[in-house]
Amino acid sequence: MVERLDLTFAALADPTRRAMLVSLKAGEHSIGALAAPHAMSFAGAAKHVGVLERAGLVERCKAGRQHLCRLKADRLAEAETWLKQWEGFWTASLDRLEALVAEEKPR
Amino acid sequence: MSEPVILTVTRQIAAPPERVFDAWLDPASARQFLFATSDGAMQTVAIDARVGGRALIVERRTQGDARHRLLFEVIERPQRLVFLFAADPAPEGEWTRVSIAIVADGQGSRLTLTHEMDPQWAAYEEQTRQGWTMILDGLARTLETNDD
Predict the structure, then answer these.
(1) A36 DSSP assignment
(2) What's chain A's average pLDDT?
(3) A37 — phi, psi (to 5°)?
């Protein structure tokens, strides 16, 4: 689980790849279509897609002569869950801190 | 690319910055809020509140003792506190970094907690972690704004 998350976060580290994921949220795209908004070569885009694919965030399927990329939301959800757990961890302490120091406040 | 995964939590608190800051380093206060859970019983709250000093906070929980280890890096009352942090089951030496910024805001304070989960502190067998990077806010924003 942790090793898989490493790959996920490494893939998410790049703003271009995050933008690609956002595009893919709207539906399947070809690599060419993913490259277009980034003024990027097909090869450059394919490299990013490869990283996303290895991280399990994207899968490729063949549609006629071109490859379409599709978002695999499960892995993204796993990463979000992991971060949410940490967020919950700190939120619990901050809730108590807030109650504690606000209580002490003279009225 | 070896930036850490960053988690940020911000909170408005109806108390002055000094009071908010002191709660983190005063054992009597810390035992009431820091890592405390509703069914746990706080066992140990030892805080050596100086740069280079350590803190150990242990809470007894039904599933066993939860040990939280801190190593203070920056103590600037009342605005900034930075410590290395490890919680079980992370082994000794596998630190992540927590920074707390407190600013006066109206009648109270605004606290921003930033947790950097930095791979450089981690003793992983594989080097795959070198690429760990993500700004949670950035991702959440990017994904959320596309939701509609």
Answers:
(1) G
(2) 86
(3) -70, -10
